[in-house]
């Protein structure tokens, strides 16, 4: 049942700590996006083949996933500002070091370092957004956070290969250092989080003394270190849609026979994903999360099936169906990112936000990696259309999870 949301005089964009979070998030993801397609191209420049260049982002995402599970404990032990500053440093500094050599081993080593930094940034950011605003406005806050992620990707991801070709790789590697600018905002975010936690602790102590609530017991304990069962459902939904999105982002240049259609499709996918991730949050706050889940799952299925039909003839991509498919998957890709994070935060107590963030981010990056691996293997053995239909079938299999309501919001 949807709950009425009281009118707010301020917006989530200006809530204490949010400007700092949004600025450092935009800087971090700008640097990440700059090298996403160009670092593999740099490996090819050095003589690596398709398999070797494919390892570049694979190494980055593997290091990211392995790091994400450790981040909640690091934050508890060393504090947000310090760990986040280190993460932004590890993500941005290696970019210029790539200019030293275009050999695969060198690139892979720095990709691992960047992956560690990216793992810190992603978990810290999505946990922080949950702490900075009240639960009733989590959807809108996640939408703002998603916009800070998606807009740099929309601007930089399609432009980076062109910049490398037109002006040289050094221009893109310079953009890759943008996360270093975000370090400036890390202390402000850390200070805001400490203030929010102190205010929450005072309220919780007063409520416990009055007999209204049990004491919270701090920001973390043994409970926060195990994965709450309520996180499984959103993680599976996220895995399916990021598998679809990751497959299209990775392989669109290979299964489209028209370069302009490929570029237009990727712009459409990233633009609709940005719009979906931004706008769906406020709607979920107002009307509830569950009524939007199953339509977005169906959009994923329809989009993948339409893409399979559009590329049935490898030599003649059907442009309009292909563009429509990319837009449909983009809407679902962005919308379900927001909603599954909102579901994850709703399934846990405040002290478990770090755990929920880590699990959500692991699901996101694992799904993206699986999309590349699974669709690549199926395409090599069969064809791209069949691979996309298999991905559509996997998305369809998650429909029962989207239709179920799951557990309600836990008490903070």
Question: Any key phrases for this structure?
Answer:
412 residues; mainly alpha; 76% helix; 0% strand; disordered C terminus
Describe this structure in words.
With 412 residues, the chain is mainly alpha-helical. Helix content is 76%, strand content 0%. The chain is built from 19 helices and no strands. Helix 8 runs antiparallel to helix 16 and helix 17 runs antiparallel to helix 18. The chain is globular, with a radius of gyration of 21 Å. The N terminus and C terminus are likely disordered.
Helix/strand layout:
Elements: H1 18-36, H2 38-45, H3 50-68, H4 71-78, H5 80-92, H6 94-97, H7 104-132, H8 138-156, H9 159-167, H10 169-175, H11 179-182, H12 186-209, H13 232-255, H14 259-287, H15 290-310, H16 319-346, H17 353-381, H18 384-397, H19 399-403
Helix pairs in contact: 1-7, 1-8, 2-3, 3-7, 3-17, 4-5, 5-7, 5-12, 7-8, 7-17, 8-14, 8-16, 9-10, 13-14, 13-16, 13-17, 13-18, 14-16, 15-16, 15-18, 16-17, 17-18
* Multimeric status of the protein: single chain
The percentage helix is over 70%
Give the percentage of residues in beta strands.
under 5%
Number of helices: 19
